[in-house]
Every structure is written in C-alpha cells, then in structure tokens.
Amino acid sequence: MSKLEIKIGNQLVGDGHPSYLVAEIGINHNGKIDIAKNLISVAKGANWNAVKFQKRSVDVVYTKEELEKPRENPFGATNGDLKRGLEFGQNQYQKINEYCQDNEITWFASCWDEPSVDFIAQFNPPCYKIAAASLTDDNLLKYTRAKGKAIILSVGMSTLAEVDHAVEVLGKKDLILMQTCSAYPSAYEDLNLRVIQALRERYDVLVGYSGHETGIASTVAAVVLGACIIERHITLDRAMWGSDQAASVAPSGISRIARDIRLVEMSLGSSEKKLLPSEIPVMKKLRRVGLKV
Question: What is the CATH number of the domain that holds 185?
C-alpha cells in the first residue's frame, strides 16, 4: 500500500502523523448555544483537534408524516418540534464559528442534505463529514464532493457492496472512511475493529474510527489497528436529556482517550529491534559476562 496523507485545515492527517481527534458534539447541545460552547471548551481543554456538529434542513430530510408523529420532548409534542428545536441556524453557527476561532480549534459538520452543504460552505470548513445514514444518497455524495474539500465518510449500517458504490461515486482523492457501528450505544462484539485494516487494504484510502460504545479501551485500540482519525460523541453529563448522551463520553473520558492515544502512539515506536541506550546499564548489571548467543 502507498503512503497516504490528507490535509485537514493546517494539519496533515494519515500515515506518519498523530491521530486526528474529532469530538462529535452533534445534537448534544440540546438546542442551547451555551452548552455547545461548553462542549467546545471541553474538547479544546482535552487537546482534541476538532469538534463536529450536524446540520439538517428539517423539512428536506424528514417527511411530513415523520415530523407529525407524536413525541414528547422539551420543545413540544411532535417529532417535528424536537427536530426543529435541536437545529441551529445562522445566528448560532456564526457564534460557533467565532468561538472556535477564538479558541483555536477546528470545526466542521455532517451535512444531511444539499442545502445544508451550502449552508456550512459559508464558513469554509476544512472538510465535510457524510453520515452513515447518507452513504447511499448518491446525489448528496456528488454534491458534497463538488465542494472540493476532503470528505470523511462513515460506513456504518452499510454492506460492503454499498461502500464499494459510495467510494466509486466519491472517488478516492482526499477520502477517509470511518469504520463504525451505528447502534447507540454499540455493543463491543459489534465494533469489528479489524474492518479498519480491511478497508485500508480494499480501497487504499485512509481509514478512521467513529465509536459509539460506552467505554474508551476499544477506541484506543483502533489507533493500533491504523485509525488515522478518531471520532467520539462528547457530553457534559451522560445523564442529560437527549438520545445521543448515553453513547457519548463525559469530560473526564475525553481527556483519558486523548492521553491514552498519545501514549499508545509513542509506545508503537519503531519496528527495528535494537539494543536501546536505556537498557545498557541494566544489561551491564544483569547479563552474565562471556555468555554468547
């Protein structure tokens, strides 16, 4: 396989570079800009590289019937009330953009429809994320690709044939695939981390990992298996109201993931077996003189 790297903003991602850490805020802001800002600060404080949101045109993504379904929530009595209540608009995203610039952290979004792609484009994102739910939406894939930015594509809830087709539609240039299980939260036996290596071998593109499990060990393991990007949902408190909170990681967990990933990257070191300078004093003390191998 060839050596691969992609530039996201001012940072190179891929072979030979540290894993790029993306804190998925998604809809865990619960429609409140102050919560969004707090989550951005958590990610920045834990030394994550970027935060990510989700952008939808509610009346485009959902049918009228779906929006009219009864669903008790803090914003009203229907599913439409919930979807519209969680959706940030121009004013909120302007504040997010300014806050991220002030705090020197990158941000981008998963865009679920073409108008949302155009909406986010005004902020000149370094890349676009395409959610697993949109993997089979050829029109959205082509529309997003036409923006000329790197694309991160989640392959959850998809067959291998569907991934083949999506890669064909998008092309491999500046493409990163993300292994994920789209169940919230995900069972450990469904994570299938070995798919990370399989995707890299099949498509010769960079591969990352988007985790929805409750713990952190498997996310760190993904780096060992070659994940160049790590994405985890973050929350201020997993007990907060919201459908994604239970599959998210609280501030202490976010800090631990970043710490452990960097330690693992350091520990992977070199494939060359040699006598290390740190071992020489121990060798002189413990090895029998004259013993030959």
Answer: 3.20.20.70
